[in-house]
Amino acid sequence: MSLLFLVFGALAYAPLAAWLGGRSSAVVAVGPLVLFGAFLTFVPVVADGGHILETWNWIPSLGVTAAFRVDGLSLTFALLITGIGACIFLYASAYLSGAERLPRFYATLALFMASMIGAVLADDLVLLVVFWELTSLTSFLLIGYRPENPATRRSAQQGFLITVTGGLAMLAGVIVLGTAAGTTSISGIASQGGAIANHPSAPAIIILIACGAFAKSAQAPLHSWLANAMVAPTPVSAYLHSATMVKLGVYLLARLNPTFGEHAVWVGLLMTFGAITMVTGAALALRETDLKKILAYSTIASLGTLVLLIGTPGQLAAVAAMTFLIVHALYKACLFMVAGIIDHEAGTRDASFLRGLRRTMPLTSAVGLVGALSMAGLPPLFGFIGKELVYEAAFADPLAWLTVALLVPTNAVMVVVAGLAGWRAFAGEPVAAASTAHDPGPAMLAGPALLALLGATFGLLPSLVGSSLILPAAAAVSGLPVTYKLALWHGFTPMLVASLVTLAAGAIIYRSWDQIRARLAGTSFFEDKGPDRAYDHLMAGLQSLAVWQTGLIQNGSLRSYAGRVFLVIAAGASATLLLRQGLQIPSFQGVLGAEIILAALLCISAIAVTAARNIFSGIVSAGIVGFAVALVFLFQGAPDLAFTQFSVEALAIVIFLGIIGRMPFRERDYRTRPERLRDGAIALALGLTATLVMLAVISQPFNDRLSAFFRDASVPHAHGRNIVNVIIVDFRALDTLGEIAVLGLAALAAAAVLAGLRKPVEEKSP
Amino acid sequence: MNSLILRTSSKLVLPVALVFSIYVLLRGHNEPGGGFIGGLIAAAGITVHALPRGRDAMMKTLRLTPKAMIGVGLLLALAAGIPALMGGEPYLTHLWPFPAAGLGTALIFDVGVYLTVIGSVLTFLSFYLES
Lengths: 766, 131
Known about the structure:
heterodimer; A: 766 residues; mainly alpha; Four Helix Bundle (Hemerythrin (Met), subunit A); two-stranded antiparallel sheet; 33 helices; 2 strands; 2% strand; B: 131 residues; 69% helix; 0% strand; elongated
């Protein structure tokens, strides 16, 4: 099936999703399901190490194509996006049943899914950027689903600003990369191997693109938006912020790893920020009591792990990254939905308070438990394989001791989070809120149950996803074919020891979570000094900057606007003239005659304008300038021009004086001496510039080809001897038609503006 | 602006300005002049007449609102190009059935320019006139 068709089919699904979702129909999940099925048909090709490339013409003048490509990496993402998407759509149809603005919500969710699909399938950097920004835009709308809440607005704006700012940096990086590689095609860049890494601008490319990827994937210190985005409805949180969108940054890094994987800046940047994010996310997760926030911070920790793994050189790290990617998507989406069910049924998500839901919600508790076991990394679940692989990759790294030392506590926190999200609320003696709770309907439970089941199935039968998806994906990440055999049991290895240590540490922390949390929550460092505060300070700074510069630039005085415009014109034109060495003085031989009197008259009246104390004398003086210019035209053989200039001047003076007679600005419009000096200086600068430009122009030899043509053609072709009029009404009649249309429209527009100003006056005087 | 001198003199200015503007409009194809200049002259004459008398008096004299004048002018200019189209020639190629008398579609076009200019100036002006 054509990939273009799949992407556009997904986009076109939005109106249908709006219609189905607005009726809270579970059928809304069929769209993503169909797409999932379509992507499944690519698995055989990809499992054989093949790929599918489709190229359509888009912007040929820039060499940009609408190219789509399916290989292991993009197929893994596409299956996660559509598969988990189907579960989310189904879940949302029950969870949000009867909520407001549902059609818009489902349309946005479908558009988000489509842009994710487009982003991971794009085989052109420009196309990728377009879909990338679309995901930012749609996620902004999804996070801001309930805009009446100020916290929602802030979170939506924060997520948008951070990801889009990163996206701009990425766009710059993409342009530099496209220039360095000579192509914007991603597979074209990949086929050059690591050669581009030797390009002098490689460090700049890496840093710029990493900015975009880090912002999207919530790497520290840009992570706060992801946790704040938990104000979104749970289906959105589950979808965007744990399974798909935040992994787009990881996807891009994975995609470019074959090109830059050997570069020291790449390795250093990814490993450093990945490790910092991992530890930050884990530390912050322990402080929270809201289940969704706990899960969100553990997502940040997981994203850090993924970035760390991609930065780690070697094929094993690639296999570990891809395995952990799938593991995480499965359990995180499952646990998010379970947290949503708990909230929906018990009315709260407070992990420190909820107990004993197991008795009234047996099915949900079973699903949550399976998901949590995978998250904790216990055999025989898929999470165990993932965690063992992560440790194995870490042990293979030269900096193994450091990486493992950071991974063990992080994974221990994962165990704690798993316990909180999948066990604590269900176990123990029921609290009051638990007694009324009960298992939700199949629409809400089917998705998380299926994902939990997959986590268990892949754990027992890793070959199901091993050679068909993970190895091709890992091959795309490392740039080389990968051979590895996923297995549940590796024997007694250092990894197993690390796993056991992790579990033990996790269990200890879990038992004393209440005390640890209370102590961590007591420290206000993150509230006072954390990046979320920094964001607020930045926004406040931006506001005051805007206020300051608005007051400076837009002070409401027409006079200062005009003065600045003239100054800019004078400075810009004279600078260009000087820098381009355009200064030229023509020979004045035989030119100066009686017109010198006109020149003197012009100068005198121009000085009179600048010296005028009030607006009346200013207008009259300006009129004299205009008449003098008209006389110049007349003596230089342009009677039509002179004629027009006379009429315009006369009309302008009459109208100006007529209007000013009615205006209230007679008294206060006297200019002070410094003001007149300032205006005179501006006028002098502009006049000098115009004179220099004119001198440069008339220094050029005159080409009379056009004059000769019009002189010869005007009578035979247009039956007229006045060349100017012939040009206006005949040779360039279409131009004139456009001009009079503009004139008429300008008058109408001015009338509309003036009518608007008139209204309040008329209302006052009946 | 309601001065006696302006009031009295403008009585004379208006007809002179209108006649002169039409003269300028008609001679434009061969001598300095044309629709644009003619329009400006007529507008100046009407402005002088209207300033002391106010908006309602101006509307009464005109019998056609300034906005309608813009519309008529633009339509005339547009229509001047249509005969050429019907003859299979490019739009706005002017036809000269009576070249000796100086009559052709170019004149219709110029009259369109003339009316549009008058209409535009007066549309703008009418908002500053006392009603």
